[in-house]
Amino acid sequence: MGTTCSTPQEILVGVTGSIAAYKAIEIVSGLKKSGFAVTVALTPSALKFVTPLTFEILSGKEVYSEVFAEKTKVSHIEIAARASLFLVAPATANFIAKAAHGIADDPVTLLYLSSNCPVVIAPAMNERMFNHPAVQENLETLMRRGVIIVSPEEGRLACGSTGKGRLASVEKIISTVEKLLKKRSTLKGKTVLVTAGPTQEKIDEIRYISNYSSGKTGYALAAEAFKRGAQVELISGPTNLEPPPGVNVTYVKTALEMRKACLDIFFRADITIMAAAVADYRPVKKFDGKLKKSHNLITLELVENPDILKELSSKKKKTQLIVGFAAETSNLLENAQVKLQEKKVDLLVANLVGDGKGFGQDFNQVTLLFSDGRKHKLPLLPKEKVAEKIFDQIEKILSN
Ligand code: PMT
Predict the structure, then answer these.
(1) Could you tell me if 235 and 196 are in contact, meaning their C-beta atoms sit under 8 angstroms apart?
(2) Is any atom of ligand 1 closer than 6 Å to the C-beta of 258?
(3) 217 within ligand 1 shell (Cβ under 6 A)
């Protein structure tokens, strides 16, 4: 279902005070050539490198370069409301810090806080600055909010040194924007909740019980939901994965933390997909410090964790759709069928695990079980493709 838009999609381009600001001229003209409408905002320090007139000519629109200018015909709120995407290129350490901490004292940070569209930033600065923990922490904060970072490249920097800090290529920045805006909108307006990864159940301060889930399946599902235009909330156990661009991530460790995070979001989720490998049990007692080796046998008493999927399913409204997973080492379909009924989900994704299957792999072979009794066995596919197939089925269920 495509949208035939008569008016071109509008991209807001924020330019901040980096020597790479001149590259924004090529970016704006490239976006115009790609058929987008462009409005440009400049920070005061950007004005030291480029002029509003250049961008007014290139964009054919008024440039927003003063917060309290009398002559600005439209407010920053209206400018932000029109945007389909907000690109800040180049993005200085100063802008990144202000954006991460909600400071809005120039046209670009003001627009950042006023926008509710996808945000893409392309950092550019000296390599030592880029690698500074303060800058890295600010970038992580923005990524957790779903901001997409077009990483700087290795190369010769304005200060004469070389390293990772050069603004990404104009082509890469424009193609990132195009990919995001050309994404499908079949799930536009929908909120999708995905859980991913393992949980860690503490034994003592240095040991825990967990499993081999890498999070790849859940992260692929979250990325696919975003590509289809959904607002995505990812609740992730500990993984080594970068958050999927554009997705809101809540990090948890234990099953109880995952349950709380799910309950906080579930009520507003149109679609919930429980791909996480939630520990069924946790130690009754968490030992303080490090459990000393007193004798050669230690007995751990375990207590059952709440079944989050079952609990959410019991709260599910008619308009909500829930997808569960079943990880089995044998009798896949029989066990999965039991879970489908027991957990009362709309769709169950069954997969064999163990012997190197499922957990941690880039590929998976799943069978989809539907609440109306249908089964659909998929071939061995990359987990991104599995995610695509699952959403194709979800969209079919939604369209019925
Ligand atoms: O992360 P990867 O490395 O990509 O591996 C993917 C995967 C193997 C983890 C994934 O495909 C998968 O099978 N996830 C579910 C693992 C699991 O916990 O399955 P289960 O059969 O034990 O649980 C059934 C369902 O109940 C699951 O949706 C699970 O999220 C949920 N559950 C389980 C226990 C619990 N206490 N609460 C739950 O909500």
Answers:
(1) yes
(2) no
(3) yes
d(CA 70, ligand 1 centre) in Å? 57
**By alpha-carbon position, which residue is closest to atom 24 of ligand 1?**
326
For ligand 1, atom 36, the nearest C-alpha belongs to 307
Q: How far apart are CA 112 and CA 126, in angstroms?
A: 23
Output the average pLDDT for the chain. 91
Residue with the smallest CA separation from ligand 1 atom 26 is: 309
Q: What is the spatial distance between Cα 138 and Cα 112, in angstroms, rounded to a whole number?
A: 15
Cα-to-centroid distance, 337 and ligand 1 (Å) = 15
The CA distance from 120 to 107, in Å, is: 16
Domains of the chain and any CATH numbers = 10-183 (3.40.50.1950), 191-399 (3.40.50.10300)
pLDDT above 70 coverage of the chain, percent: 96
Closest CA to 178 of 87, 62, 243: 87
SS3 content of the chain, % helix, strand, coil (to 5): 35, 25, 40
- Distance (Å) from CA 116 to ligand 1 centroid: 33
Contacts of 146 (CB under 8 A, 6+ apart): 118, 119, 232, 245, 246, 247, 248
Sequence letter at residue 159: C
Instruction: Name the residue among 83, 85, 104, 84 with its Cα closest to residue 94.
Output: 104
Per-residue pLDDT averaged across 342-360, rounded? 94
- For the question of whether the overall pTM of this predicted structure is more than 0.90, the answer is no
117 annotated active-site? no
> Which pairing describes strands 231-236 and 191-196: parallel, antiparallel, or unpaired?
parallel
Omega of the bond leading into 243 within 30 degrees of 0 (cis): no
Tokens at 262, concatenated: 């799910």
Do you know the residue count of the chain? 400
DSSP assignment of 305-316, as one string?
PP-HHHHHHHH-
Contact between 321 and 307 (Cβ < 8 Å)? no
| CA distances for 123 relative to 97, 120, 130, 150, 273, angstroms | 11, 10, 8, 7, 33
Rg (CA), the chain: 24
Rounded percentage of the chain residues whose pLDDT exceeds 90: 75
Asked if 233 and 258 count as a contact pair (C-beta separation under 8 A), the reply is: no
